[in-house]
Design brief:
The protein is mainly alpha-helical and 156 residues long. It folds into two domains: 47 residues, no CATH class; 104 residues, Orthogonal Bundle (Arc Repressor Mutant, subunit A), CATH 1.10.10.10. The protein is built from six helices and four strands. Strands 1-2 form a two-stranded antiparallel sheet. α2 packs across α3 and α4 packs across α5. The longest helix is centred in the middle third of the chain and has 14 residues. It is elongated and about 60 Å long. The termini are far apart. 22% of the residues are buried.
Amino acid sequence: MYMKELDMTEGRGTGIPIIRREMERNGSPEPRFETDENYSYFITTLPIHPAFFAEDEISEGVNKGVKTNDSQHDNALRLIREGVNEGVNENVYDIISILTNVAGLNAVEIASRTKRGLSTIERYLRLLRKKEIIEFRGAPKTGGYHLTEKAKKLLK
């Protein structure tokens, strides 16, 4: 009997598309698949999410439209290091950079600008709110995120 008939799997051919979709939504690198000429086996490699890399590997971000000077960049990195020490990565820097230039965006707008999944952005927004780097102002449906005064002072 096959595992599908035993109700031990979701279905035939559904796993790889789910893996690809979820890794993309999470902001993780693409999975890698390897097989032999006879397709007698395959090996899947799921690369580690960038959030687990060292702080000094923070990238410039994916949002090419964000303009910051070197001082702002250095201050943003310092703010991240001082206030956000768990899961530091380019997503956090991108959010801070975007809100420095365009305050009041909601999570969907931030996700669109960073080309990241909504659940990923919401996770980082919660982290930044917890660390009092950003705050939400306004009604749940029409409000948006803003840098706190603490963050603005550090970014100057």
